[in-house]
């Protein structure tokens, strides 16, 4: 206390999170939920990601169970035969193509379940020339891309006219507008069960790509707007006075802008693995930083300012999330760039995938235990936070719900395949942007002062007596709490 009777402290900037009313919390969460529902509704009405065309190898006029002279195609069950497929013409916005297949079952074998194995000899060519139907293709004029032997399991369920769909190949980047594929069967044990072989050629549609392009552009602008508003609201506060939460929220908003992928249009202009790597790095950084952000926010609630700004506070948490970043990025790049030609190989047979998956699972378990411990400790010590205690509880419950839902969306996106489901993929982008909007609002500076806290600052002094005021820092690991010591100065 100085001679003028003013008490100087080094407390951090008060945030809206600690002063917002219950009604304010309720309205903010309602707005968040409404925005997510609107985004989901728009996503459900988005163009379908995939356009699919089915090609019969037999090309028979009817559902004949036997290949005959009236069929205009090729019977690939005859090992001496091969079929030539032309895929395209692809445009600049057609991002990825797939080739799948399934067998029709013979009508007499409809009620029989069967499992078999088939091997394809697969040759892929690229060209810029579109061939007319039934035109003979000169292989010498084509660019040979790759030649493989593909092994695939065939499962034919009972009481069905069709076998399950099997995977043949995919092209992540379309370097040529036209692809020519030569296929022949070199080994099979399903001849007595199946009949016609149907190919399914799929590619990401132009309409969906353009829709996603504008969708991402909207949220790039949205995240930039949130960042600018947040910085403008804190413009009058010196950066050294910014709170722990304010500093990290700015970093989170910066990563959010990159998560919305400003480089997305370049994927169509330059078809190469560089942008695939960049996107994987950005996705991984944002996911791991969001986990780091949530962890330090709850850990900091029960830490004094001196501890929450020390390297010892951030180092173990950063190390955990850094290890997660390395393993998740390795998993992304390994699975996105590797063309899996054998569906018979499951994850348990891939040694590298097993090691990476076990490492990620182990680190996630450690993270979840750490986060749950931090949340429980924060809830158990809300009394030390005074009137802000219930706000911390509400915020904690909201954060747990958000994390669980966000993880569910991420799992759906990654395990359902690349843009297989437009609603899930687009809603995930909107969801994380609206969540960061909520954080931006909650961590805005607030000038509202709690009445109880204001009354506690008033110290009545006796004119005939001088007092010495000593404030000791609170450290829940080393002391029993904040101590204010007032001693008589007897002179």
Structural class computed from helices and strand pairing: alpha+beta
Mean pLDDT reading: 79
Q: Could you tell me the radius of gyration in angstroms?
A: 31 Å
Strand elements, count: 10
Query: Which series of helices and strands comes N to C?
Result: HEEEEEEEEHHHHHHHHHHEE
Stretches where pLDDT is under 50 for at least 5 consecutive residues are: 1-10, 341-346, 456-467, 471-491
Oligomeric state as shown: single chain
Question: How many helices in DSSP terms?
Answer: 11
Subcellular location: Membrane
Membrane topology: Multi-pass membrane protein
InterPro entries: TMEM181, WLS-like_TM
Pfam family, one: WLS-like_TM
Could you list some keywords that capture this structure?
single chain, disordered C terminus, disordered N terminus, 491 residues, 18% strand, 4-stranded antiparallel β-sheet, Jelly Rolls, alpha+beta, Rhopdopsin 7-helix transmembrane proteins
Give structural notes.
With 491 residues, the protein is α+β, with helices and mostly antiparallel strands. The chain has two domains: 16-47 and 207-442, Rhopdopsin 7-helix transmembrane proteins (Up-down Bundle), CATH 1.20.1070; 50-204, Jelly Rolls (Sandwich), CATH 2.60.120. Helices cover 44% and strands 18% of the residues. The chain has a four-stranded antiparallel sheet. A four-stranded antiparallel sheet has the order 2-7-4-5, with no helix packed on it. Helix 2 (206-233) packs parallel to helix 10 (422-442). Residues 1-10, 341-346, 456-467 and 471-491 have low confidence and may be disordered. It comes from Entamoeba nuttalli. This is Wntless-like transmembrane domain-containing protein. Residues 207-447 form the Wntless-like transmembrane domain. Keywords: Membrane, Transmembrane, Transmembrane helix.
């Amino acid at each position: 206390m100085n001679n003028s009777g003013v008490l100087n402290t080094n407390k951090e900037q008060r945030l809206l999170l600690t002063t917002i009313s219950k009604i304010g919390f309720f309205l903010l969460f309602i707005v968040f939920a409404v925005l997510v529902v609107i985004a989901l509704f728009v996503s459900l009405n988005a163009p379908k990601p995939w356009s699919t065309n089915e090609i019969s190898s037999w090309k028979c006029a009817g559902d004949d169970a036997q290949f005959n002279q009236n069929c205009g195609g090729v019977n690939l069950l005859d090992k001496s035969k091969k079929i030539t497929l032309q895929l395209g013409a692809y445009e600049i916005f057609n991002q990825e193509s797939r080739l799948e297949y399934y067998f029709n079952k013979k009508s007499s074998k409809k009620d029989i379940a069967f499992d078999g194995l088939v091997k394809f000899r697969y040759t892929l060519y690229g060209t810029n020339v579109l061939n007319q139907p039934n035109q003979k293709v000169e292989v010498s004029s084509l660019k040979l891309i790759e030649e493989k032997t593909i092994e695939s399991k065939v499962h034919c369920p009972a009481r069905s006219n069709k076998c399950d769909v099997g995977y043949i190949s995919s092209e992540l980047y379309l370097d040529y507008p036209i692809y020519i594929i030569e296929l022949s069967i070199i080994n099979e044990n399903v001849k007595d069960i199946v009949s016609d072989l149907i190919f399914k050629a799929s590619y990401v549609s132009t309409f969906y790509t353009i829709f996603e392009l504008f969708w991402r552009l909207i949220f790039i602008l949205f995240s930039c707007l949130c960042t600018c508003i947040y910085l403008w609201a804190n413009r009058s506060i010196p950066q050294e006075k910014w709170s722990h939460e304010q500093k990290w929220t700015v970093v989170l908003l910066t990563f959010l802008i990159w998560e919305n992928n400003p480089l997305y249009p370049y994927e169509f202009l330059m078809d190469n693995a560089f942008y695939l790597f960049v996107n994987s790095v950005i996705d991984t950084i944002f996911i791991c930083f969001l986990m780091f952000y949530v962890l330090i926010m709850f850990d900091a609630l029960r830490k004094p300012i001196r501890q929450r700004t020390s390297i010892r506070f951030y180092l173990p948490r950063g190390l955990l999330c850094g290890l997660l970043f390395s393993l998740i990025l390795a998993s992304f790049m390994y699975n996105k760039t590797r063309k899996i030609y054998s569906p018979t190989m499951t994850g348990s047979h891939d040694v590298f995938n097993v090691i990476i998956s076990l490492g990620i699972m182990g680190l996630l378990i450690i993270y979840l235990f750490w986060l749950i411990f931090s949340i429980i400790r924060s809830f158990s010590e809300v009394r030390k936070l005074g009137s802000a205690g219930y706000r911390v509880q509400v915020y904690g419950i909201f954060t747990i719900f958000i994390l669980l839902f966000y993880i569910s969306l991420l799992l759906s996106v990654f395990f359902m395949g690349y843009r297989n489901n437009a609603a899930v993929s687009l809603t995930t982008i909107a969801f994380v942007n609206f969540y960061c909007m909520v954080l931006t609002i909650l961590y805005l500076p607030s000038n509202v002062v709690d009445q109880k806290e204001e009354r506690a600052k008033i110290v009545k002094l006796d004119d005939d007596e001088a007092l010495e005021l000593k404030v000791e820092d609170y450290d829940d690991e080393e002391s029993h709490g904040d101590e204010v010591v007032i001693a008589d100065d007897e002179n």
